[in-house]
Amino acid sequence: MAGYRLCRVKTAENPFFIENISTNIYSIEELCYFFVGNVPLIDATVMNSRLTAWVANELGLPKLSLKMEHAISGKNGILEFVGVAFSEIGYLSQSEFNRYAENLNAFLSLPGPMKMKLKGDSLCRVGKYTAATRVYREILDDDDGEMEGMESREAFLGAVWHNRGVAEMKLMLFDEGLASFRRSMKMRPTRRHAISYVEALGITRPREKYTEEITAFREYLKGFNDGSDVGEDAIYEAEEILEVARKGIEVDIPADIYGYVQDLAKEYHASAGA
Questions:
Q1: Residue ranges with strand state E in the chain
Q2: pTM higher than 0.90, yes or no?
Q3: Residue 20, Cβ neighbours under 10 Å: how many?
Q4: Average pLDDT in the 238-265 region?
Q5: Rounded CA gap, 217 and 215, in Å?
Q6: Average pLDDT in the 78-101 region?
Q7: Is the distance from CB of 211 to CB of 185 less than 8 angstroms?
């Protein structure tokens, strides 16, 4: 996918559109490539009669189509569904398939919220930030559901808030992103969470406001135990990253980056119809 098509086997005249990653595929090889790299995204948007009909009609593989239909309704579910596709073209060796099956079963055995988080993370990885924020929001809205009594619940929720903030910043939803980062810091924050928050402040706040919020953040960090990796040096690391980033930008940006970034955000949302 990534801008090219694999062509060792027959390609379809009419592609199949994978909704989760907004990508057209043209061959069984590309479908297998998707299965291998996107386990959390193999859901009802892919495992359906629309795909099996495409396999039969566009790829000329009616027997494979029937096997996939059987897998959808069978007890072995996803593993059988992807397995028959792999077997059709020998996409994976036996040892590779065994490792894949172990990883898939490990994923399927996770609690629902963890599987959803991995889905959101996968969507972020392929640049589908709006869809990712919806997944993260669903997890957080169901805070009192499957997560009740879950081990390391606070750490998990902190990670979800952080990743939601990352997706929102990518969408130039700066206020929402900062709010999500703050929520992550109130859970069980990590050094990465602290650095993300400082970086976000650095590109979205006027200099005076940045100084004010960083001062308050420094006071907040003093409340963590000495053994924590979340501390004052996390701020210094983030500020070094910001300084390197500013020096590496080749366009003329004013010393106070705030107005520049806000203008970019307005242009982005205007072009996106937001």
A1: 16-18, 23-25
A2: no
A3: 19
A4: 60
A5: 5
A6: 95
A7: no
